[in-house]
Design goal:
A hairpin with a 2-residue loop joins strand 16 and strand 17 (397-400). Helix 2 (67-79) packs antiparallel against helix 5 (98-118), helix 3 (83-89) crosses helix 5 and helix 10 runs antiparallel to helix 11. Helices cover 37% and strands 17% of the residues. The chain is built from 14 helices and 17 strands. It is α/β, with parallel strands linked by helices. The protein has a 5-stranded parallel beta sheet with strand order 9-4-3-12-13, with helices on both faces. The N and C termini lie close together (3 Å). It has 2 domains: 30-164 and 240-374 and 425-434, Malonyl-Coenzyme A Acyl Carrier Protein, domain 2; 166-232, 2-Layer Sandwich (Alpha-Beta Plaits), CATH 3.30.70.250.
Length: 436
């Protein structure tokens, strides 16, 4: 959940982007000597919405708009019966129930992502806020959609059970950095409260017992600090969820993970999931299935490092962020954390077409920067991230190929296959108020 003001409605323009990082800590490196200039769109990341973004009627028209979106809802209904109907007809109160929220938000988010792919937009990386990470892994190919919904059914059940057993809550604090807020918490005598969601540089969510959160709210108000109690059923992403995390780990132990076709940033660390393979050779360059499952299980009882995630993506070359799923929560957080980046939200079929057309027009008018073939030393592998997934190893150098392209909706079937480099090759280590 995030206690943040509602962002402005799509008022920003396509922006010019800063130079990409170079050197051993980045996969983009320096321009290869004599490499040709290639005109392309900037790197795009899909961001999957989290709990709190839901609203009655979300996802309307998605099934009719696309067979791929319809297949997502079919998978959702098979694992979590009634998901599609609840998206369309459930009340605000019913959608707020954890066991209902998580499957419905995941279904709308995955359907929107599939629509964007059909429109010709291929992400260079993905991330998801809390439950959204399950969808991000599915889009990346770590498992199929059916498995994603089976996992979210278990995840929501376990988190709901833990919430009922612990009687906790969450409170968003605005206008303070983590260090400043930690000092205030300690001065209040409530040091057992936990900072659990780092949503934006000065927007942080605290979790703990309801009574103590109310005391903290009064303490902050006396000092002119704004805070907002969140309408949630538990102290999510805190130590109160440890049992749920342990039980979810056992569920994941029975689930097979495959190599991801695109990088996924983990909530727990802001680093890439260790699920990489070279898409041309199939060689597993850094595939640790056990660690990947640990990251996904730990996420339930660990802080969401969303600021770190966004900054990692940006520092690794991502300049365009598209939120997929209901609401505009993550779009607002992106603008607050990375004001120079381009960000949009897609929650309808019309929205997907509009974003695709905007990117295609910007590319055609050359308002997006050229992308050069770049090189990095083949030996510059970091401890947590891989060299470019779709790179050509030539003479001990890895040449990253042009990143992505956008095909206008008016040119169906004209997509050219371009390899997508790994942008996470780096060692740089009222809905928004309800987001978790």
């Amino acid at each position: 959940m995030s206690g943040v003001p509602q962002p402005a409605d799509g008022s920003d323009q396509v922006t010019s982007v800063r130079p990409q990082a170079t050197g051993p800590d980045s996969c983009v490196g320096r321009d290869a000597p004599g490499a040709p200039s290639v005109r392309s769109t900037a790197l795009v990341a899909f961001l999957f919405a989290g709990q709190g973004a839901q609203y009655p009627g979300m996802g309307a028209g998605l099934v009719e708009a696309s067979p791929a979106a319809a297949a997502v809802f079919a998978a959702a209904d098979a694992a979590c019966p009634g998901t599609h109907e609840r998206c369309l007809t459930a009340s605000t109160e019913e959608l707020a129930l954890t066991r209902v929220t998580q499957p419905t938000v995941l279904a709308v988010s995955l359907a929107c992502a599939r629509l964007l792919e059909e429109a010709g937009i291929s992400p260079a990386a993905v991330a998801g806020f809390s439950l959204g990470e399950v969808g991000a892994l599915a889009l990346a190919g770590a498992y199929d959609d059916q498995t994603a919904f089976e996992l979210i059914a278990e995840r929501s059940r376990l988190m709901d059970n833990a919430a009922r057993a612990t009687s906790g809550g969450m409170r968003a604090v605005l206008g303070k950095t983590p260090a400043q807020l930690q000092t205030l918490i300690e001065e209040s005598g409530l040091s057992h409260l936990e900072m659990v969601n780092f949503n934006a540089p000065t927007q942080i969510v605290v979790a703990g017992p309801h009574t103590d959160l109310a005391v903290l709210g009064d303490y902050l108000k006396e000092r002119g600090v704004r805070s907002i109690p969140l309408a949630v059923s538990g102290a999510f992403h805190s130590s109160a969820m440890r049992r749920a995390a342990d039980e979810f780990a056992r569920v994941l132990a029975r689930t097979a993970f495959a190599p991801a076709r695109i990088p996924v940033c983990a909530n727990v660390s802001g680093k890439r999931y260790p699920l990489s393979a070279d898409s041309k050779t199939g060689v597993l360059s850094q595939f640790d299935e056990a660690l990947a499952k640990t990251l996904l299980a730990r996420q339930i009882a660990s802080p969401v490092q969303w600021v770190r995630t966004l900054k990692r993506l940006y520092e690794s070359g991502i300049t365009h962020f598209i939120e997929v799923g209901p609401g505009t929560v993550l779009t607002g957080l992106t603008r607050k954390t990375l004001p120079e980046a381009w960000s949009r939200s897609v929650q309808t079929a019309e929205g997907a077409r509009a974003v695709a057309e905007e990117l295609a027009e910007a590319n055609q008018q050359k308002t997006l920067p050229p992308v050069m073939l770049r090189e990095v030393a083949a030996s510059s592998q970091s401890s947590d991230l891989d060299p470019a997934t779709d790179a050509r190893n030539t003479g001990g150098r890895v040449h990253c190929v042009p990143p992505i392209h956008v095909i206008p909706a008016s040119e169906p079937g004209s997509r050219t296959q371009h390899s997508v480099p790994d942008p996470l090759c780096s060692e740089n280590d009222k809905r928004e108020e309800q987001h978790a």
